[in-house]
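dumping this here before i forget
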Amino acid sequence: MFQRLREDIACIRERDPAARSSWEVLTCYPGLHAVVMHRQAAWWWRREFHWTARFVSHIARFLTGVEIHPGATLGRRVFIDHGMGVVVGETAEIGDDCTIYQGVTLGGTSITRGAKRHPTLGKGVIVGANSQVVGGFTVGDNARIGSSAVVVKPVPPGATAVGNPARIIQADADATREATAAKMGFSAYGLTQGDDPVSLAMKGLIDNASGHEHQIALLWQAIEKLSVRSRELPSDDCVPGEAHTTETFDAERLNRLVK
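structure:
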């Protein structure tokens, strides 16, 4: 139990720059309290003391503003940041190292008793504030759910889901754009994902800059290879068309040609 608690405190300090000490996390973070109390409720639930489990869950909801059904499954190092308004349904499963922000609902669309009604989050998933993930599907490992998104279908591993209804953004293209934008001094994730013309123009410029950077890198590699080869050959034996690293401009020879 204490090992799990130490893990929870360490992951919060790692992911939240506002956390200044372990004591502060232990005493002032309702998300941590909700997770700890859920473990107690789940212990009663597994032993079929359902009323006791629901009552512990009810007390946790009253104290923290986070409602986690005792039947839900939580992995290790789950961080519920701020926490107020988070609702996790009975058949929901949350993988290791997930981060959930305030106002999130992991809900269901079916009223069939005993069915898998709530979503499964893979490892390392980030669920943004006020987003709704509704249904018995899977959100893949390391996926991201944007703030206020409404997700009603599976999300592939590593992808980003934004909007209402949520649409999937290709992870590779998004990561490349973010890396290029970071070099320019801002975050591409700050741009809207809709049809705003300014946003689309900015994304086009970022993608174009990324392509140019790649081409320049290839050119430099080619130049370096040619430079090494030209240094290995005698000056009179350079292959036509090969790159030269020394200046060979002969002004006097050109003057003689035009006289």
